[in-house]
Design a protein that fits this description.
Layout (H helix, E strand, L loop, with lengths): L5 H23 L3 H5 L3
Length: about 40
């Protein structure tokens, strides 16, 4: 096992992409719950 298999690499890349997107989404758009909450 000198090289990681392509499927595993693809899975990790996809997971990182999804996680980064999930983290970046709240910062980009305001949450409906936060908008409904009175200031």
């Amino acid at each position: 096992m000198t090289r990681p298999c392509p499927q595993h690499l693809h899975r990790v890349t996809t997971l990182l992409r999804v996680t980064a997107h999930a983290w970046a989404l709240p910062a980009r758009t305001a949450h409906p719950a936060a908008a409904q909450r009175p200031a």
